[in-house]
Amino acid sequence: MQVGLTASAPVRRVPSAVADVDALLEGGWPRGRLSEVLGPRSCGKTSLVLTGLAAATRRGEVVACIDLADAVHPASIAGAGADLRRVLWVRPPSVPDGMRCTELLLHAGGFAVVVVDFGAEVPRRLRSYVWPRMMRAAEQSHTAVVVLAPQRVAGSFAALSLGVRARAARWQPGAWSLFDGFDSVVELMRNKLGAPGRVVALRARVQSPWCPDEHDYAHEAS
């Protein structure tokens, strides 16, 4: 074999349903890879990922959320247009149980995206085999695995890492100021499939008055 004569197969993607983020990711979350979305509480990272899950169900695909943070609000996901019949919501009692659930789902196959949400807490050091096994299971199932955490947890086993931070809150004018959303900045911090370092600004609007932590990015990217 001569160097330069081989070509790698193109990586299939699952769109995030936010045009600017899909441009940043060169089409969306890579299938068969681990991706990380990193940021503090209330930065918008969970809403960004759930927007993509809702869009995937509308395309007829099946998705799963390993909700270690116990933060998923099904009514808000349904309000964003998700078909809840195509969403598997798992609420494991501990991080090790969540990792086992994720691996079982990947081996079962059939999921376009599996999200693992650690919430605001950094998980304690996991056993050394957890991430390489999850990476291999993602490759075999051709599933996009997206990990939500306040900081990097998958190390070199993550194909890409997105950093999300809130930049400024937005308020509706009037006698009583109402929270209307906030501007977020999304940065491609690590990318094994391309060049990192690119940044995009998003404007998140509150989607429903009963759940102020859910936001609609679809028409407010800038």
Q: In brief, what are we looking at here?
A:
The protein is of the alpha/beta class and 222 residues long. The chain has five helices and eleven strands, in the order E-H-E-E-H-E-H-E-H-E-H-E-E-E-E-E. The protein has a domain at 13-160: 3-Layer(aba) Sandwich (Rossmann fold), CATH 3.40.50.
Descriptive account of the structure:
It is built from 5 helices and 11 strands, in the order βαββαβαβαβαβββββ. The longest helix has 14 residues, at 45-58. The protein has a domain at 13-160: P-loop containing nucleotide triphosphate hydrolases (Rossmann fold), CATH 3.40.50. The relative contact order is 0.21. By secondary structure, it is of the alpha/beta class. The strands form 2 sheets. A 9-stranded mixed β-sheet has the order 5-4-6-7-3-8-9-10-11, sandwiched between helices. The protein has a two-stranded antiparallel ribbon with strand order 1-2.
